[in-house]
Specification:
The protein is an alpha+beta fold. The chain is built from 11 helices and 19 strands. Helix 4 packs antiparallel against helix 9. The longest helix is centred in the middle third of the chain and has 43 residues. It is elongated, with a radius of gyration of 28 Å. The two termini are 21 Å apart. The C terminus is likely disordered.
Length: 421
């Protein structure tokens, strides 16, 4: 059906800061991923122009129509050149269907690898060319409507994120619990206090990487704190020995009532410890142990507010990874209010965020339904159930015979065929 050309194996020494962009897999599945560039000339087969069909076949699978300017193709991506009897868009949608099936068989794993031999040997039903055109037209008609709905759902998701931050901002400006608030002033009874004054301890994890153990106590790293759920994921932590854990100071052993806070890389993510569990953590995570004048949940919410995050962003230093120092963390200015109002603030926040959670769940459900509908459309398309067939079209069997004859007359194809036996 097509020729598959793997990209060039670029070396880091061939990368420059400007010139012709090099298409890597991350440039296909992430619109904002930075490009590497090249100024050298390479074989024409590695050149990609607007409209070319590409397929990422390693780690993150996917079919793409290139919509950029002239570029060079990196390895682990095929440039696909359809035969004259195969419509490019038809092949594009076919590859989307195949990709979805591969991921379904691997339980949705994000890291999948497909060899060129296995890829080229995959058989698909090939209808006559006129029917391919009709199928593509119908697919695009249906998906256009579906994509508009998905776009609206994703817009709503972004609006929810903005609203969540607005709720936290209003909460710590006093607007959820006080009426007739003026701009730029704290409510009566509130005052600015250093975070250190609201905690019995503020520390970070062990600065020395501990020896790993097959069994023992979970040791969490920054990757174990989920940015979305703001909870600790204990499913993939490594372990340290009980002996190592016992030697740690008490302020490096999280307790129920503490709040964790990431301080390196993806800094500014709090996680509440509202359970009894023995574990320890690395130095890229801070620990805030609220004092008797600070409610734990109130502390959790104030640490994720824009008022605090902006301070973290302003004080973070470093080159490879930005880091919020413990000194900066302790010096954060917190809009403090008495305990009874802290409890009210938590109630007001959670009543609003619980509504957001329900809407978010509904959106996620709708997005999953949309993806299922997309796959259903593709499945029907390639089962011949999406558009009517025309008896005047050249039969698919004739096309397949032509393909087999063409492959048998190509020496390289003969070699590939023999190697599969």
């Amino acid at each position: 059906m097509a020729d598959y050309i793997n990209g060039h194996a670029f070396k880091p020494t061939e990368w420059v800061s400007s010139g012709i962009p090099i298409i890597r897999i991350q440039n296909l599945n992430n619109e904002i991923a930075p490009y590497n560039y090249a100024t050298q000339d390479f074989e024409d087969k590695y050149k990609v122009v607007n409209g070319d069909l590409l397929f990422a076949w390693s780690a993150s699978l996917g079919a793409y129509i290139w919509k950029g300017k002239k570029a060079w193709l990196n390895q682990h991506i095929f440039k696909i050149i359809p035969k004259a009897f195969c419509d490019k868009s038809f092949l594009f949608y076919t590859l989307q269907k195949i990709t979805a099936e591969i991921y379904a068989k691997t339980h949705g794993s994000g890291m999948v690898h497909v060899t060129k031999v296995k890829f080229e040997s995959t058989e698909i039903p090939l209808p006559p060319l006129p029917e391919q055109h009709r199928i593509v037209a119908k697919i695009e008609e249906l998906l256009s409507s579906l994509d508009k709905g998905v776009e609206s759902l994703k817009t709503a998701q972004q609006q929810l994120k903005v609203y969540r931050q607005a709720v936290l901002k209003w909460a710590f400006e006093g607007k959820l619990t006080n009426k007739n608030m003026g701009e730029g002033e704290l409510p009566k009874g509130w005052k600015w206090m250093k975070l250190a004054k609201l905690a019995t301890d503020i520390t970070d994890g062990d600065h020395i990487a501990p020896p790993k153990s097959v069994e023992g106590i979970p040791f969490i790293t920054i990757s174990n704190i989920n940015k979305t759920t703001q909870k600790v994921n204990f499913s993939d932590t490594f372990k340290v020995s009980l002996e190592y854990y016992r030697k740690l100071k008490m302020n490096r052993k999280p307790q129920k009532g503490d709040v964790l806070y990431t301080v390196t890389g993806s800094f500014g993510i709090p996680a509440i410890v509202d359970y009894e569990k023995e574990f320890c953590f690395q130095r890229h995570i801070g620990l805030v142990r609220p004092s008797e004048i600070a409610n734990q949940k109130w502390m959790f919410y104030v640490l994720q507010s824009s008022q605090v995050y902006n301070q973290a962003k302003a004080t973070a230093t470093g080159t490879a990874q930005l880091t919020v120092s413990l000194k900066s963390l302790r010096d954060f200015n917190i809009p403090y209010c008495p305990l009874p109002e802290q409890h009210l603030i938590v109630q007001e926040i959670e009543s609003r965020l619980s509504v957001c959670d329900k809407i978010e769940q509904s959106i996620e459900h709708s997005l999953k339904q949309s993806e299922a509908l997309r796959q259903s459309i593709l499945k029907k398309a390639f089962e011949g159930k999406l558009v009517p067939q025309d008896p005047n079209d050249e039969p698919a069997s004739v096309l397949l015979d032509r393909i087999r004859k063409e492959r048998s007359e190509t020496p390289s194809s003969q070699t590939k065929t023999r190697s599969r036996k």
